[in-house]
Write a structure and sequence with these properties.
heterodimer, A: about 60 residues, mainly alpha, B: mainly alpha, 7 helices
């Protein structure tokens, strides 16, 4: 593959796009891990979305 | 099950779990084929030489930065008109992705412009309107972060998004309405594309790959936003429970 006299512009374009794509992937993965860790920490403290047993019985 | 039933965030999360592996697989496949065609199969342009290979990144990124804003505009209508629980989540999650695509379009355009036009930047209508789009994305991201009440932030951002949508036809038709250094449309035209099929097909494959990538990241970001609202709501409930005298936490949208 011969990129000619303007190879540096082509390589810079592909390189910057790759970095941007990787940054987006890292952003969603790190954010997901953080939110899941926060939910787990809350669950360990007994704070979760599940309704208490007595409340769900009372609602029936 | 009706489409509207996916307004339930828990059902939406289950759907995302099923869809994501397929979308990721398709996205990787299209990127592999698209990059191979763009770098090894597509011929050089008779005037631009190998520099035309920047087109396979620049054009899909430019299309996607506009499509992303269109998704945000539709989501904003969903927020304001139907108060759809996921509409605000969708709009908020799409903004950073749109900003990234706009950044890619501007940078690759600049790197393409220097060898072809002799300059990285000119203040012509197409380039300036795309820069305005990037500023809109950054402004919306800032708005969501600065307002404490997420419901109010969602409504304010929806209104601002709809106002900013006026920029979309300006971007699209700027090359027709004004005398610009940027070339006129050569793919999406009333009389069909003016690009040779050997150059067009790799572009189409790369555009599909970019679109699939957008949907993958958007779904993942929406999932994160739903989890973030759950965390926030649980913390507010816990705080209200530890201080019984204070008012109970308000419900969060799409929690």
């Amino acid at each position: 593959m011969d990129l000619g006299t303007h190879a540096s512009f082509i390589i810079a374009s592909y390189g910057l796009c790759l970095l941007t794509v990787l940054a987006l992937i890292a952003w969603v993965r790190v954010d997901k891990a953080y939110q899941e860790r926060s939910l787990k920490e809350l669950a360990d403290q007994g704070i979760s979305r599940a309704r208490p047993e007595t409340e769900s019985k009372g609602a029936q | 099950m009706a489409f509207w039933d996916y307004a339930n965030p828990t059902r939406f999360l289950r759907l995302v779990q099923v869809l994501l592996p397929w979308l990721i697989g398709l996205c990787l496949l299209f990127f592999a084929v698209g990059l191979y065609m763009s770098l090894f199969i597509a011929p050089e342009d008779y005037q631009q030489g190998a520099t035309v290979r920047i087109m396979y990144l620049h054009v899909p990124a430019a299309w996607l930065c506009m499509m992303c804003y269109s998704v945000m505009t539709l989501s904003s209508i969903g927020t304001l008109v139907w108060k759809h629980p996921l509409a605000d989540v969708s709009a908020k999650s799409a903004a950073p992705i749109g900003a990234a695509f706009t950044f890619m379009a501007l940078v690759t355009g600049s790197l393409w412009g220097k060898p072809m036009w002799g300059t990285y930047w000119v203040w012509d209508a197409r380039l300036t309107s795309v820069l305005v789009l990037l500023i809109m994305y950054l402004g919306l991201m800032t708005l969501w972060r600065t307002m404490e009440d997420q419901i109010k932030a969602g409504k304010a951002a929806a209104v601002l998004t709809l106002v900013g949508a006026l920029n979309l036809p300006i971007i699209k038709f700027s090359v027709d309405w004004w005398n610009t250094l940027h070339q006129p449309a050569s793919v999406i035209r009333m009389d069909g594309p003016t690009i040779h099929p050997d150059l067009l097909w790799p572009l189409v494959i790369m555009a599909i790959a970019f679109t699939l990538f957008f949907f993958v990241i958007h779904l993942m970001a929406m999932r994160n936003e739903i989890l973030r609202r759950r965390v926030r709501n649980l913390r507010m409930r816990a705080a209200a429970a530890s201080h019984p005298g204070t008012a109970a936490a308000t419900a969060q949208p799409a929690e």
